Amino acid sequence: MANQAKLNAAGKDFDFPVLQGSVGPEVIDIRKLYAQTGKFTFDPGFTSTASCESALTYIDGDEGVLLHRGYPIGQLAEHSSFMEVSYLLLNGELPSKDELDTFSYTISRHTMLHEQLATFYRGFRRDAHPMAIMCGVVGALSAFYHDSTDIADPEHRKISSHRLIAKMPTIAAMAYKYAVGQPFLYPDNNLSYTGNFLRMTFGVPAEEYEVIPAVEKAMDRIFILHADHEQNASTSTVRLAGSSGANPFACIAAGIACLWGPAHGGANEAALNMLKEIGTPDRIPHYIERAKDKNDPFRLMGFGHRVYKNYDPRATVMQSTVREVFEALKVTDPLFETALRLEEIALNDPYFVEKKLFPNVDFYSGIILSAIGFPTTMFTVLFALARTVGWVAQWNEMISDPGQKIGRPRQLYTGPTQRDYVPLDKR
Ligand code: SDX
């Protein structure tokens, strides 16, 4: 029978439907596998598992292709804006000018935080990692917006999505201000989404802050590059949290927590710290050998990817953006030369070639963010800020699916089989 996969288990044949998406690998529908065979599949890390159906983002890891609703990331990075890409991810089509203006205006109406939330920051040490603050403050949003947590109501889902997208720049900027001991700045909605964020971060009271257009454009492009990325670890976390019916603010806080890890969104901070540790190009061979040494936990941060077995198309854009920002700010950074040399050496080393390890989105981003003025501790915060639109779009897609169920994986149990309790005096 066409489009069937046959499995022989315990001497019996079982047929399972094979489903084809609009593009990409076919999937074997094993939803009835356990009921029919009494067996589970085993796939720790989900290397061969499609967890859901989605129409948002498509990645071809072998070809280095990334599409958002069909549009290549390179074209969106060159021609679009983060507000436009946000509209596209949420609604499925590029907006008309009126639709974009209305969407941007709606988002700008939600950039302010409830004044009580500002007191949450004062509970943290000044040297708290900004990602710890993001986890806490975003999770706390659900204590302030009881009017938009009925996930069954599309209007509630819409306003909480807009609130999250709009408030992340304010929360992120406040985390930075708190760390440096400067007063918080309120949003200025006469500025663009990204210009507003830059001013809240680097502006000071009673002083006109000038948004540098080239920096605003580079920052906006970096937000586009981080907006969504299929079923990565933090997006899968948001979907799993959302599958229980948790409110969207709690789900996004869960995604932020997962993104923090150095194997995921925390890699941009780790990559710049690695480049600082390497320092000059003459020290690169030592670190390349360490990265190849099975007994050394050191890895080249910003290199490798679960899906991309080719150059991450976002890294390509990121590398060219480094040059634009350096030119605009009339600065340079010797670490960029070290990064370029490290990439050149690694991509010509058989270990990296055979394992198909290429620079990913995190390899160059830290150099740009550092040039703009962000401390490394803010890098993953900026990733979370941008990824919020992807998380809420994926969450909405899941919650809107009438067939969605709570996510509840099974396991291969290897612990003790049943045994009787032994009283303390008998042990
Ligand atoms: C992001 O999923 C997404 O889409 C994530 C993301 C998004 O937008 O959401 O793209 C953002 O998280 C990008 C990745 C950022 N992380 C890093 O840069 C950290 C360094 N990279 C690695 O830790 C690793 O490459 C991962 C975690 C990204 C991917 O790991 P996998 O797919 O589980 O691959 P693996 O660990 O099994 O590695 C395969 C082999 C291993 O060697 P063997 O066991 O086969 O001998 O490659 C080696 C690894 O040791 N390897 C590396 C390496 N990455 C993998 N060796 C040295 N340096 C590296 N960076």
UniProtKB/TrEMBL annotation:
The chain crosses the membrane at residues 363-386. PANTHER family: CITRATE SYNTHASE. GO terms for molecular function: citrate synthase activity. The lineage of its organism: Bacteria, Pseudomonadati, Pseudomonadota, Alphaproteobacteria, Sphingomonadales. It holds the Pfam family Citrate_synt. This is Citrate synthase. It comes from Novosphingobium kalidii. Pathway: Carbohydrate metabolism; tricarboxylic acid cycle; isocitrate from oxaloacetate: step 1/2. It catalyses: oxaloacetate + acetyl-CoA + H2O = citrate + CoA + H(+). Coiled coil: none annotated.
